[in-house]
Amino acid sequence: MEFENYKIYGRCAVLRKGGKKMLVTVDVGPRIIFYGYDGGENIFFEDLNDTINRDSAFIKENLKDKGIWHIYGGHRLWKSPEYEDTYYPDNSPVRIVETDDKTDFISEDESTTGLRKILSVQMHDDGNATVTHTLINVSDTVSDELAVWTLSVMDKGAKAYIPLPEEDTGLLPNRNLVLWSYTDLKDDRFTLENNYIEVEQKNRPSAFKIGVFTNKELSVSIKNMLFKMSRETKEGRYSDYSCNVECYTCDKMLEIETLSPVKALSPGSSIVHEVKWSLDKI
Fold first, then answer.
1. Is the pTM of this model over 0.70?
2. pLDDT per residue over 105-117, tens digit each?
3. Which of 8, 102, 237, 258 is deepest in the core (most CB within 10 A)?
4. Per-residue pLDDT tens digits for 126-148
5. How confident is the model at residue 217 (pLDDT cuts 50, 70, 90)?
6. Element (H, E) at 2
7. How far is CA 268 from the centre of its chain?
């Protein structure tokens, strides 16, 4: 595997195919910190000035030697529901396991959640990718119900397009819209139409977030590129009032997020969520 030092992130694994390039942090994280055309711009946000971080009483009490949590940027793997232990400071080196068709980037075991995170990347000949996200219960007790939560942190100027279900369900509802306490439906970053939602990143000091359930492909336009994400919608119960897609934005970035169904994990068991990425110039 090829490595390079990238900006503030230290050593990163380099994946190249089909004229596209991906960088994955290995000194911290893991994060897919760069994805774009080789020699071109990054579609992801890079928090080079550490403007988004989190310290808390929980971290101080339980994780004194781990530092604080940093967003770093890029694409990350988390667990849902979002509690204080979701913000486990992933500041330690990442273990790498290569096979013929993919590379696994493995976090340290989390003492507070009992989880191990594995971010697996398979880059295809056209430069598109399959990103597989795995949470493993490495503790000796059954976990609370949890879900895989994937967050792609897009750079400024991103616009997310989220198609909504269109099935005719007769007398029953066929779509949902979930709001957070700080969500303002009059926000001009948010467009709601009958069959889709758009969220656009703008220089607004306030945060905005919505969630939905949809089995359709997601897309984000950014820097004259179109980033698409597709995944299988599995049967099961979903967190956050039945969301499998969420979108958050603030003055620095836009996050397009996907979630698996929730599941309690017995010791040694895992939950897996696969997302297919494509990137094209527009």
1. yes
2. 999 999 999 999 9
3. 258
4. 999 999 999 999 999 999 999 99
5. very high
6. strand 2-5
7. 24
Tokens of 237: 């119960």
Q: Please tell me whether the peptide bond between 81 and the residue prior to it is cis, using omega within 30 degrees of 0.
A: yes
Q: Is 197 in a helix, a strand, or coil?
A: strand
CATH of the domain at 90: 2.70.98.10
Secondary structure of residue 265 in the 3-state scheme: coil
- Rounded to 5 degrees, what are φ and ψ at 280? -140, 155
3-class secondary structure, 136:
strand
Distance CA 111, CA 89 (A): 11
**Structural domain count of the chain:** 1
Q: Which domain holds residue 13?
A: 2-281
Residue 117 near residue 135, CB atoms below 8 Å: yes
**Which of 129, 212, 218 is CA-nearest to residue 177?**
212
